[in-house]
Amino acid sequence: MSTELKVPTMAELFAAGQQPEVLFWVGCAGSFDDRAKKITKAFVKILNKAQVSFAVLGTEESCTGDPAKRSGNEFLFQMQAVTNIEVLNAYGIKKVVTTCPHCFNTLKNEYPGLGGSYDVVHHTQFLKQLLDEGRITMEGGTFKGKRITFHDPCYLGRANGVYEAPRDLIRKLDAELVEMKSCKSRGLCCGAGGAQMFKEPEKGDKDVNIERTEQALETQPEIIAAGCPFCNTMMTDGVKNKEKETTIAVMDIAELIATAEEL
Amino acid sequence: MQYVPNVLFGLILILGLGFFTRNVIRLKRNIFLGKDVDVSDNKPLRWKNMAKIALGQTKMVVRPIAGILHIVVYVGFVIINIEVLEIIIDGLLGTHRIFSGLGTVYNVLIASFEILAFLVVVAVVLFWIRRNVIRLKRFIKPEMEGWPKKDGNLILYIELVLMFLFLTMNAADFQLQQIGADHYAQAGSFPISQFIAVLFQGLPEATIIGIERTAWWMHIVGILFFLNYLYYSKHLHILLAFPNTYYGKLTPKGQLPNLESVTNEVKLMMDPSADPFAAPAEDAPVPEKFGASDVTDLSRVQLLNAYTCTECGRCTDECPANQTGKMLSPRKIMMDTRDRLVEVGNNIDLNNGIFQDDGKQLLDDYITREELWACTSCNACVEACPVSIDPLSIIMDMRQYLVMEQSAAPTDLNNMMGNIENNGAPWPFNQMDRLNWSKES
Is residue A1's pLDDT more than 60? Predict the structure, then answer.
């Protein structure tokens, strides 16, 4: 676990006259949120292990503008987008992978119209591809037979139709994939989307993450798997609220694989 | 004198269809109060969506019970309309069952209409029970109180009465055929109404003719009434589901459109050669309003969406905010948009074609800010809609108005946006610290 992470930046590679295979867009949560940073590191460990040539923007990365756009601030969104696109285009980026479905959706769908067209994939799609190409191998070991339920992030699933890549990875771990009553295209939101992450919820009977956590708990899982740093936070809070944090772990798909591979 | 019924029928038909045409023109006028959007792209996919979603009912069966019952009523409605064609020709020409020359085909047709009519009655009764006895949650939400509830039940009653009249008409006809009455030649096969016909046994021929004629007239007048009821009802979906699925969103659900007017501004700001002190050109148009505060700020597709909504409530049922007791209900967003649009349309009609400011708007007078801010933009409502309505787009446009025209975002969100502006992240962390994670163990 103590091996140092190799995290090259675009600036370094550019200076050395190299172009990476893929840009890893870390995102704000992945860069700053303590819980999400673990997901970032787990993903980097897999990339290192698979010897994927990648780079991050580091201090040249800035918020994609997703929460601003969904709050209604189109101006701030486009300022962010245009600035990011200038950086990405200057480096001649072709392919982007991100561990955040919100960054994924914005980069993939909303940047092309502003002059930024890239091949954007979510990290679960990327990992699935590595697996298919034989660049990573996965042994069930650690998770063999464990009950894992997958919470579909809205911006990965409904918003972009990616349902199977994360599930294929879980199955590959020899785990028992159990579905919640609302899943895939009818998956229930964790409550963080549309900039809700950054504000108090409106008055109601219950918080959305509690409702979703209850659905997850109905499947009696040992692990709740997620593919989004915000969903991860919401589900982790939900599990704590139900005082189940000692028996049920909330883990990103990247963390599951990194753990299984003892990275 | 013998042509009196024909003339009367013609007049009723002209009146019914004329009034309907007037309503369609009004409807179109109201929808065209919205902003023009380019939806001329990708016609093959649009036709495919219409065929699949509206004609093929693919999204209805996501909920199997309601879906199958709905298909029964839908197929019944469409097929039985072949019979209406015969009724109209008979009415105008004074003939009786003019298609009966088709022989066996005719018998099969009439028999299938009867079976469908019976199945429609069963489905309608079950629908009524779901609304009024079982009281499914989505039918008793606050926005369904009053007219929407009455409207929903009225539609079921009208359908029930129409089917009853249709079967009574056939039953009387069948009985008249049995006793060999003039003009009632043997035609058709009556697997359902033969059981009703038993009730007419032994009645004088004139009475049975009276029943047959009464049911025949009431049935066609009822259909014309129903056609004109649509405009005042949520039931418009039987027509508008088709254009609405055609014009439905084709891009990924997560993709929100980028505002072009903003893009121009941003490009100008990023252009080093732009003169920051340049005065706007003399003929420069008045800057566009950002977002939507009233129905006229919305697009024509969004307004078509509002008229198409039949208040089934699947959107609201799937909405995470609504499920956890928040005020937001995507169905109410659509109903409010439609109700305000109707109000604006009526205002225009009353004021010789020019809208007089009524001091009201969609925002605040219909849709509250609390509803708008409760949305997680999760697209569950969009996914749930069986006819491709997009409530989320209206919510997002109204948020845009609140933030860009009124700077009226909740404080927390203002802080978040301030952080993005200042340090490129929604939290107050320095952009220069973005890579620190790679050095932390």
Answer: no
CATH classification of the domain holding B320: 1.10.1060
How many domains in chain B? Answer: 2
In a domain, B251, yes or no: no
What are chain A's domains?
10-129 (3.40.50.1860), 137-260 (3.40.50)
Q: Tell whether B231 and B320 lie within a shared domain.
A: no
- A208–chain B Cβ distance below 8 A for any pair: yes
- What is the distance between the terminal CA atoms of chain B, rounded to a whole angstrom? 101
Residue pair B89/B83 in contact (Cβ under 8 Å)? The answer is no
Token pair belonging to A78: 């486009």
- Nearest by CB to residue A68, choosing from B269, B379, B420, is B420
Q: Taking CA atoms, what residue in A is nearest to B263?
A: A78
Nearest Cβ partner for B373 among A78, A110, A202: A202
Question: Model ipTM?
Answer: 0.96
- Asked if the structure places residue B255 within a domain, the reply is no
pTM: 0.95
Are residues B233 and B296 located together in one domain of the fold? no
Identify the residue among B253, B370, B372, B405 best suited for mutation to test binding to A, counting A beta carbons within 10 A and taking the highest.
B253
Q: Which residues of A touch B291 (CB under 8 A)?
A: 72
The dihedral through the CA atoms of B166, B171, B174, B176 has a sign that is negative
Expressed as residue numbers, the domain containing B160 is: 4-31+63-246
Is residue B39 situated within a structural domain? no
pLDDT digits (tens, 9 = 90+) for A92-137: 999 999 999 999 999 999 999 999 999 999 999 999 999 999 999 8
Which of the residues in chain B have pLDDT under 50? none
Sequence-separated contacts (24+) of B93-96 with Cβ below 8 Å:
B93/B6, B94/B2, B94/B3, B94/B5, B94/B6, B96/B183, B96/B184, B96/B185
Distance from B312 to chain A by nearest Cα, in Å?
17
